[in-house]
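Private note to self, pasted from the team thread so I don't lose it. Backbone tokens:
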């Protein structure tokens, strides 16, 4: 398939690479042109000066940028991807953004006879590099079926979860669950240390039982070493949790644990940990105890 990929950050760079390695013709755009040129050196294909030029003549345009405003800037307007796509093409937005934006873009794309899916991902940079992401999609089933196999180039699970916005709502569920698990780990490890236990040995044991989680398996060692310069940044998590809490308020739903942990992440930011991994909740526990 002829594919445009817009946004070559820590996630988008390897994701676009998997598409190229799978035999697709890929044209990339990045706000920093040097990164786009480096991608072409690594994977072949070509780069473009604007999102519109990247999308011109392509059957599919994938994007993975920062937030709602970033998505609008690369999709809408005279230089946006939508202006470059022909009728019948598809836009897949892998950005973690708002459900409202997904519905807005589906309408804008539909007016141009272009399909749209909101399709945020989970799995982090490591999952992107390994091609083992989880893709949570929202949109029309007929559009989804046209690109499902293509998205599998960088995913081990791709699933349509409902109409436009459903992918973003599912990603919010993902972030709520992660926030609660990481706070539980931070408190559990702090308790273990205060009790004088060998926490690494405790983790080795309890990770074989009901307490096991991805976060425990992949983050316990770096948490115990105080290493946080990797992974999913606190700033990004707070952006995501702000969207969760906004949606919850609109639903009339209380999320007390999520609100509490969001505040804890605010404390981590105040400690200078804005770019630390989300597992840095443990650093906050140690600082307070």
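Design output:
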């Amino acid at each position: 398939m002829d594919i445009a990929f817009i946004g070559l950050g820590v996630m988008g760079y390897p994701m676009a690479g998997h598409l190229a390695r799978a035999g697709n013709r890929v044209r990339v755009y990045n706000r920093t042109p040097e990164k786009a040129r480096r991608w072409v050196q690594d994977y072949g294909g070509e780069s473009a000066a604007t999102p519109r030029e990247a999308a011109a003549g392509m059957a599919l345009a994938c994007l993975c940028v920062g937030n709602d405003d970033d998505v609008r800037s690369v999709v809408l307007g005279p230089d946006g991807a939508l202006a470059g796509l022909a009728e019948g093409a598809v836009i897949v937005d892998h950005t973690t953004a708002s459900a409202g934006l997904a519905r807005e873009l589906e309408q804008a794309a539909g007016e141009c006879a272009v399909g749209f899916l909101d399709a945020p991902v989970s799995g982090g940079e490591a999952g992107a590099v390994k091609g083992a992401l989880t893709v949570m999609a929202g949109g029309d089933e007929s559009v989804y079926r046209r690109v499902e196999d293509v998205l599998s180039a960088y995913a081990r699970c791709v699933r349509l979860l409902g109409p436009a916005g459903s992918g973003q709502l599912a990603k919010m569920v993902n972030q709520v669950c992660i926030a609660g698990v990481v706070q539980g780990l931070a408190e559990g490890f702090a308790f273990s240390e205060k009790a004088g236990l060998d926490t690494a040995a405790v983790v080795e044991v309890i990770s074989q039982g009901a307490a096991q989680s991805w976060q425990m398996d992949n983050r316990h060692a770096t948490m115990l070493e105080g290493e946080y310069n990797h992974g999913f940044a606190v700033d990004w998590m707070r952006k995501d949790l702000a969207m969760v809490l906004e949606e919850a308020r609109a639903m009339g739903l209380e999320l007390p644990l999520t609100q509490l942990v969001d505040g804890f992440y605010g404390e981590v930011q105040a400690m200078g940990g804005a770019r630390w991994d989300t597992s840095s909740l443990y650093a906050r526990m140690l600082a307070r105890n």
